[in-house]
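pasting for the record
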Amino acid sequence: MRHRGGEFVRFSAILALAFAAVSARAHVPQEKKEYLTDTEADKIREANNPSDRMKLYVAFADDRLKKFQYELNRQVAERRRDEVLNGLMNAYSGCIDDAADQIDDAKQKQVDIHASLKLLESKGKEFLAALQKLDEGNGSDFQSYKDTLEDAIQGTKDAIADAQAASKEMLPAPVRRKPN
């Protein structure tokens, strides 16, 4: 009998340690996104509000799209060119999706993001035009990145629609009047 009690105590202790490890892990700060550099992830963490984070994500998306176009037009191709192109296009999609995700965060915190919404909408339209031009499939590498390009186009359309809807939904910032 006594032997079983010892096993129960050991099992309980192991279970308690496992539970403690799982709950401690839940409080670990959010890890950086795979497609962000350490510096970019630090900038996102340091951004004080959803509006600032949205602007950063849009800038990072712009950077990834420019890098994609640069790689596509290089005369001397990388050894694993299709991996590089797909990685950049996936990174672009991640940035644009995260920019749009800041809209919900701003709604919850009731933060004015009208300027950032305008930026997301205008840059999103620029990005969409560039992506649609890539979708014409003129290059020899087109088949290697076609699927990620289609995802990026859809993600950009969704981000633009989210920004437009949020602009209509969100109340304008309060106007401060000067005392008489």
